Amino acid sequence: QARYLLGVGSMAIVVLCAINAWNCFYQRYHEPLIFWGLIPAVILFLVLALREQGVIITYWYYPAAVSFYFMLHKRQALIANVIFLAIVFPQTWVLLEPTFMLRFMVTLLSVSAFSAIFVHLIDYQQKVLEQHVITDPLTGLFNRILLIEVLEQTIHQHDRTAIPMTLIEFDVDHFKVINDTLGHAEGDKVLRGIGDFFKTRVRRADKAFRIGGEEFLILLYDTD
Fold first, then answer.
1. DSSP state of 173
2. What is the pLDDT at residue 182?
3. How many Å apart are CA 113 and CA 213, to the nearest integer?
4. Residue 30: what are its φ and ψ, rounded to 5°?
5. Taking Cα atoms as reference points, which of 164, 157, 223, 168 lies closest to residue 198?
6. What is the value of pTM for the model shown?
7. 3-state secondary structure 49-62
8. Nearest-10 Cα torsion for 75, 80, 81, 82
9. Strand ranges (E), the chain
10. How far is Cα 214 from Cα 85, in angstroms, rounded to an integer?
11. Hey, what's the torsion of the CAs at 8, 9, 12, 16, to 10 degrees?
12. Cα–Cα distance for residue pair 174/184, rounded to 1 Å
């Protein structure tokens, strides 16, 4: 349509989004660049495009609002959406018909709100799943999956800072007798009791693991 400025602007936005997707694919995530660079560019472009092309451009406001939640963490995405709506609504109020403006306002608010709710649920489910992965379901202590990572971090930290660390490894003697004589349910109670004992006795900086059936390990931070 010979609108060269809009063409260049839209192509720039597409390229920037593609670069962001490429970086995320290779686990290079630069949130400040997105929040202070890409998001303002998108908002500015949509406002200018609305002035140039009118109502047809409002269809692009919906994917823009959703995309903020895909590109930013939950809190930053919410801030970006609030700023987006605060800038967009006064512009559309002046440029669009009142009846269309009201419908547009309600639908855009709905899209933004449902996106926020959806991302909140995903974030909550991810935290629950991560907790299940690294936690022993019987005792509530950390499991062996997290152990290797924690030990590697501890070694690197000690190499950098020379902070002393201590490992206590032990098991429960004659635990098989408890299972054989009283049953596995009572054995599970014993293990849960040991887990509760550790969770209430170790410091917040320390970590307690269940590494086997009745085998446990405690990492003591800054302890010789």
1. T
2. 93
3. 47
4. -120, 80
5. 168
6. 0.67
7. HHHHHHHHHHHHHH
8. 90
9. 165-171, 207-210, 215-221
10. 57
11. -170
12. 14
Chain position carrying tokens 């991560």? 130
Which are the contacts of 107, defined by CB distance < 8 A and separation ≥ 6?
62
- Phi, then psi, of 92 in degrees rounded to 5: -70, -30
Are 146 and 209 within 8 A, CB to CB?
yes
Nearest to 113 by CA among 70, 71, 65: 65
- Both structure tokens of 220: 């003591």
Question: CB under 8 Å to 51, separation ≥6 — which residues?
Answer: 91, 95
Q: How confident is the model at residue 66 (pLDDT cuts 50, 70, 90)?
A: very high
Unique residue bearing structure tokens 């419908």: 103
Residues with Cβ within 8 Å of 108's Cβ and at least 6 positions away in sequence, in order, are 61, 62, 65, 85, 88
Rounded-to-integer distance, Cα 216 and Cα 168, Å: 8
Structure confidence at residue 85 (pLDDT): 93
Query: How is residue 177 written in tokens?
Result: 């007798």
Strand order in the sheet with 207-210: 165-171, 215-221, 207-210
- 3 state DSSP class of 137: coil
CA 34 – CA 42 distance, rounded (Å):
10
pLDDT in tens, 148-192: 889 999 999 889 999 999 999 989 998 999 999 999 999 999 999
Strands 215-221 and 207-210: antiparallel
**Cα end-to-end span (Å), the chain:** 74
